[in-house]
Fold Cysteine rich repeat-containing protein.
Amino acid sequence: MVQRFGRAASGPVVRFSHRTAVYVRAGLAAASLIALLVLFLSQASAGDARSEAKQACKADYSRFCAGTMPGSGRIRKCLGDNYASLSAGCKQAFDANPPK
């Protein structure tokens, strides 16, 4: 059985056998799964870096930015304004996590 799969740039109908269409779909599904996995792993690693930065800067946040409302980069700005006084661990975490 021949299945209609799409049109080529020149205009004629491109025909693939059922088996070829199944392989194409399986390949696309595998590529999509790999792309989602890569995206998930990169987000997880970014989340880990953020939580490490939060832990490293916890005392500095309490000391310099306790009254700062979270959101829109306000805490990062506050820590940046007090960069010279930050602990070594917080400075390292601050430098390792550039703003988005």
Summary: The beta strands are 2-7, 13-17.
